[in-house]
# Entry
Amino acid sequence: GEDVEQSLFLSVREGDSSVINCTYTDSSSTYLYWYKQEPGAGLQLLTYIFSNMDMKQDQRLTVLLNKKDKHLSLRIADTQTGDSAIYFCAELLIYNQGGKLIFGQGTELSVKP
Amino acid sequence: DAEITQSPRHKITETGRQVTLACHQTWNHNNMFWYRQDLGHGLRLIHYSYGVQDTNKGEVSDGYSVSRSNTEDLPLTLESAASSQTSVYFCASSDSSGSYEQYFGPGTRLTVT
# Structure
């Protein structure tokens, strides 16, 4: 079945690296995504990775994809207090007419000064 | 700039009343989605549409309906509001090709008393 799993909480100190992990079940997923949700706001797309890639880097963000283990991670370098938020991973499922995203439950990142 | 908007941002209604939440996007996206977000459940898909006159049920569609009469709008109707429908509702849209990333509205907080 379709399922995306994440740990619920992560706490780090300001300046450290944060690593948020995610596992997914559908090996045919072509794209995987990371979204950020700040309090009282909608989800903001952070980055996404195509399934034929192992890694994607964008400034402080590094996404690693292990297709064999169906494991996705998001590393935030030099974590700041402004990075405190809920982070969702999602996988794309394509149907005949279009695509829909399956979201994990979200990981709440707390950054302590 | 293209955007996706939701109205109202906050709504309080009574049990049994019909409520309609509006979603409007100027991305010219074919795909539109409605989610609800509750503590402990992450994002759950209510209904989605892949184009004008197309609607599909998501995982928690009971008690909700949508209609798609044009590309820009996908209103969500609660036929007879129940306290279990107290939640934050998010609308999203995506293109129907490429990377399918979804863009989210700011959300509507609905309270059913």
The longest strand of chain B covers residues 42-51. The two ends of chain B are 37 Å apart (CA to CA). The interface with chain A takes residues 30-31, 33, 40-43, 45, 48, 50-51, 54, 90, 92, 94, 96, 99-107 of chain B (CB under 8 Å). Chain B has a mean pLDDT of 95.
